[in-house]
């Protein structure tokens, strides 16, 4: 059952409090000696990523150039009959 002090219209708020720093200021909040320094491995990965993107764009452009300008059916032009059939032999 509900306690007599509790009403259905009351509002309950929970507050989360960050614990205070109790280690005499030696903790820099996760910012140790190597904080903010990038590694050579990260540089190599970034260069490999840019090379891969370059070749992907190059390949995509090659495939796009092979596509027709439009996928619509071409309008049918009247077929012209040749004046002289090529299979006739001249004497």
Q: How many helices does DSSP assign? A: 1
Biggest sheet layout: none
Number of strands: 0
Give the helix proportion (percent range): 25-40%
Helix-strand string: H
The SS-based structural class is mainly alpha
Mean pLDDT: 76
Radius of gyration over alpha carbons?
A: 38 Å
Strand content: under 5%
* Termini separation: 118 Å
The stretches of 5 or more residues where confidence is low (pLDDT under 50) are none
How would you describe the shape?
elongated
Write a short abstract of this structure.
This protein has 91 residues and is mostly helical.
Describe the structure.
- With 91 residues, this protein is an all-alpha fold.
- The protein is 29% helix and 0% strand.
- It is elongated and about 110 Å long.
- It starts with 39 loop residues before the first helix and ends in a 26-residue tail after the last helix.
